[in-house]
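User: quick one, fold this
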Amino acid sequence: MKKYLIIFLVIVSFSACDKLEYDQTAKIVTKEWLKDLQTPWQIVFAPDGRIFFTERSGRVRVVKDGVLSTWLDLTNVVENGESGLLGIGLDPNFSRNGYVYIAYTYSTAESKFNNRLVRCKENPATGKGIEEKTYIDNIKGEQNHNGGPIKIGPDGKMYWTVGDGFDDSKPQDLTTLNGKILRLNLDGTIPSDNPYPNSYIWTYGHRNVQGLAWQEGTNNLFVTEHGPSSIGSDCCVDEINIIEKGKNYGWPIVRGTQSKEGMVSPVWLSGNNTTWAPAGSIFVKNGKWKGSFLFVGLRGETLYRAVIDPANPRKILRLEEYLKQTYGRLRDVAEAPDGTFYICVSNRDGRGSPKAEDDRIIKLNVE
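Assistant:
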């Protein structure tokens, strides 16, 4: 039996300077959609109505007409800490070519953690996928800070985030792909209009970007990024950034409210006392929250809604919190064509306190 939950909203304090408010007109209704999963990571919707998602242990899963099956099972994935099978993206022409792009961590005799981006293809006779072509390989990985999400931008290019691999020397080094947002053609080649010749790098100076979303009407790319979680003055400062071609986002030279010429400052921060551990993000396309920037938090265990200034699409007016500590660690949020939101619960990632039903994907409607 599916479980339903209506969330009643309350006002709570917020660590940043702006007052935290809620959409008082919204009623949040959730229900359990899938359970007994293994750390679902990213979720995408196919044009034929199927829903694809990755499990960090190595499986690409698909739901068709309410039935869950395994589309691809990778045996060479290394799941340890934050590593494993991570991002997934469907080709805009998936209905015709069957291409699915995934990113995952694997090991070799020389290195325990490596990250690669590959293209898979669906066999129309079986409805299953096979790993077909490697696009980018041998990127330094680590137990933590692998990055991972994949999204196709409105420019028709693929964007893939790569974490710093727990190595602060990498994000400012343009000879390595760690600590970067990468941009590539859908055939795996380097776009001619990338900012650095013969390089996949789109932006650099990143610690661990976890969410990518384009604002409708402006095509501004907003991202969520993890700040340091150490105790003291360096704590927290998780970020929302607006990404611009070729720019330097500062890590590890600047963080939080610090600034330096030639480096881009965040448009919003969690503050020095609050950790979101932000993950997947979207811009809402339908319904009451249309135009809002939504993202979820792992340590924050919350769905966050950033309200954008109608007069300035680059300005966030306030941040609202929903589902706080209701389901535990939240890994991804996605909006289906009908306006329903799907949220991946990630309590079996080694840092949560899983319940019997975990891990889960829940459906959420705003009424």
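User: anything notable?
Assistant: Confidence is low (pLDDT under 50) at residues 6-20.
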